[in-house]
Amino acid sequence: MQIDVITLFPDFFTSSLQSGLLGKALAKQIAKVNLVNPREFTLDKHHRVDDEPYGGGVGMLLKPEPICAALESLSVLTRRNIILVTPQGQPLNQPLLQELATGYDQLVLICGHYEGVDERVRYLVDQEISLGDFVLTCGEIPALALINGVVRLLPGTVGKAESLKAESFEVGLLDYPQYTRPPIFRGWEVPDVLRSGNHQAIAQWRYQQQCQRTQERRPDLWEKWLKQQENK
What residue spans of 53-195 are helical by DSSP H? Predict the structure, then answer.
């Protein structure tokens, strides 16, 4: 997959794109991330990318010309999705990550700054995505989260693909509690069922824990999951 990021701060991504599973996936060319700075496409000597909003107001807006020029400099693959990361967008969740990972060969992410982007930039995009109902200092943070969430779903990134199927949100429930050695730590014991070797009992316990944890911690997800079960 080709992921192009239009960002004023390419250095923001340097360490994260070289670390952990994400770094290994990019090294194996499971995905490629291309960072493009819109400052390189400005025409004035100060390389200005922002200006005051018409009608007054606090803060500055990103100008449309540099973003448009940066976008037009990119190669175009057949299945391409141009995304503006913004608090006003569709909330990012696991089904959306699945859709992005399987439905496209190229993702183009536009990172906003200051008070946002000129409204005309929205004519250039296919989709707007938000990390949540809060505001951050820059669009690079949600863009990096989106890249991480998508790349880890691509074949070859995670060693055991089966492990992706049982994690939180994949089946509509939160993940079950997990333990490793030692069997007792500071008086806290690993549940006997997990050491029983009875795979059927373990699977039943894990399912019960998923239901209980989701009901207690995320009643909104629990209600949604119950409705899905009723529809089935």
Answer: 64-72, 94-103, 140-151
